[in-house]
Amino acid sequence: MKTNSVKHYLFSKGIDQYFTGINDVYHFNIRFFKVLFTRPFHFREVINQSFEVGLKSLPLITLTGFIVGIVFTKQSRPSLEDFGATSWLPSLICIAIVRALGPLVTALICAGKIGSSIGAELGSMRVTEQIDAMEVSAINPFKYLVVTRVLATTITIPILALYCSFVGLYGSYINIHTEETSSIVSFYQSAFSSISFLDIFSGVAKSVVYGFTIGMVGCFKGFNATQGTRGVGKAANQAVVLAMFLIFIEEIVIVQLANWIRYF
Predict the structure, then answer these.
(1) What count of other Cβ atoms lies within 10 Å of the Cβ of residue 88?
(2) How many domains does the chain have?
C-alpha cells in the first residue's frame, strides 16, 4: 500500500513538473516577443553574437558541407549508373542538398556548437549571479542576453545553411569532375534546372525556424539554470538534446507543408 502511494506521488510530481515546464516555456517565448520591439535596441551586441555564431562556425560548416557533397555523390552514382541516368546526378544532389541536407546539417552542427555554448554561458552567468547584478544596475538582462542571441541565431543560421549548400554542391562537382571531366558551369546549370523558388524558400524558411529554435532553447536552459556549476553542464547538455529533437520534429512538419504547397 505504501509502495503504491509513493509511485502515485512520484507520478503526480512528474506530471506537475512537465506542465510547469511547458508553462515556463510559453511565458519565456511570450516575454521574448514582448520585449523584441521595445527600446533599447542592442544592435552592437546582435552583431557580436552573429560573429560568434557565424564566423566561428564557418570552418566546421565548410568541412562538413564539402564532405557531405562528396560522400552523397559517391553513394548516389552506382544507383544511377544501373539505370544509365548519371546525367541526372547534379540535379539529384542539388535537390537533396538544397531541400534537406544543407539546412539540416547546418542546424545540427549549430545546435551542438552554438546551443551548448549559449546554454553554458548564460548558465554560468545565472549561477554566479551576474544576471542578478545586471538587473540591479538597471539593465534588462533578458533584452541584452536572450533577445540578442536569439536574433543572432535566427539571422545567421539561414546564411550558414545557404553557404553549406553551396559548399556541398562544390564538393559534388569535384567528385563528378574527377569521373567525367565536366565544367563547373554545366554542372551548376544542370543542378539548378530542377530547383524551383519554392525549394530555395522552404530551405531558407526551415533554417530561420531552426535558428530561432536553437537560440531560444539555449537561452531558456541557460537563463533558468540552477544547482550551481553542475547546473551549467546540465543546461548545456539539455540545450543540445532538446534543440536537436525539436529540429527533427520541425523538419517533418515543414517538409509536409512544402509538399502540400507544391502539390496544390
Answers:
(1) 15
(2) 2
Helical axes 89-96 vs 58-82, angle rounded to 10°: 140
What's the burial of 71, exposed, middle or buried (CB within 10 Å: 0-12/13-18/19+)?
middle
Q: Identify whether 99 is part of a domain.
A: yes
- Under DSSP, the state recorded for 137 is T
- pTM for the full model? 0.85
Q: Does the CA dihedral 65-250-75-187 come out positive or negative? A: negative
- Of residues 202, 160, 138, 171, the one with CA closest to residue 66: 171
* Cell numbers given for 94: 542539388
Residues 6+ apart with CB under 8 A from 234: 225, 227
CB 89, CB 176: distance < 8 Å: yes
Instruction: For residue 17, name the pLDDT band (cuts at 50, 70, 90).
Output: low
Q: Is residue 211 one of the residues assigned to a domain?
A: yes
Q: Which of 159, 123, 102 lies closest to 239, judged by CA?
A: 123
Q: How far apart are CA 152 and CA 136, in angstroms?
A: 26
pLDDT tens-digit series, residues 115-141 = 888 888 888 888 887 877 877 777 788
- Going by C-alpha positions, the residue among 161, 188, 20, 171 that lies closest to residue 103 is 161
Q: Which residues constitute the domain of residue 179?
A: 53-263
End-to-end CA distance of the chain: give it in Å, rounded.
59
The Cα 219–Cα 119 span in angstroms is 6
5-14, 67-76, 157-166, 183-192: segment of lowest average pLDDT: 5-14
Same domain, 154 and 216: yes
